[in-house]
Specification:
8 strands; mainly beta; disordered C terminus; single chain; about 160 residues
């Protein structure tokens, strides 16, 4: 068992060390945690927000089925496109970094208990006028690894996925 754990962590550690467009605090959140989403524009593919000085909002939702992972089939989208709300407004923390606070994922997105699993959180960060946005969509994916003794580790990382045109 110990060798298996070492192998798993040795395999995952390099992936965790790579800079990400989105990071989270805590690093491995659960759906009931208070989560801080940290957006670093310098690590995002389009780099449209590097040095940006205006307000930034998250167009965000969740993926709730295995079939919809990394797709455009978002559920429980927080606001309509272009709608500027305090709940989705990011706080500027540096020249090209912003934060979004999500207190309890299920409550934030209003996801009922009948939805068994949240596979991904989805994001497009955009300017207030929607003229500037991240591209492609950003997905915060979660991998659950359950061990024999009932320990559960939840690993979350960002995956950038190109959607078909």
């Amino acid at each position: 068992m110990k060798r298996l754990l070492i192998l798993i962590f040795a395999t995952l550690l390099p992936a965790l060390a790579i800079a990400q467009a989105i990071e989270t605090v805590p690093a491995f959140p659960t759906e009931s945690d208070d989560i801080t989403i940290i957006f670093n524009a310098e690590e995002e593919e389009s780099q449209n927000f590097v040095g940006f000085s205006g307000d930034v909002y998250a167009h965000t939702g969740v993926i709730i089925s295995e079939e919809d992972k990394n797709s455009g089939a978002w559920s429980y989208v927080k606001t309509d496109w272009g709608e500027n709300s305090e709940d989705t407004k990011l706080t500027k923390t540096g020249n090209s970094t912003w934060e979004l606070q999500i207190n309890n994922v299920r409550e934030y997105y209003e996801i009922p208990e009948s939805v068994e699993k949240i596979y991904q959180l989805t994001f497009v960060f955009r300017s207030a006028d929607t003229n500037t946005q991240t591209s492609p969509d950003l997905f915060l994916i979660c991998l659950m690894v359950k061990f024999r003794y009932g320990f559960l580790i939840l690993l979350c990382r960002v995956r950038i996925h190109f959607l078909p045109s």
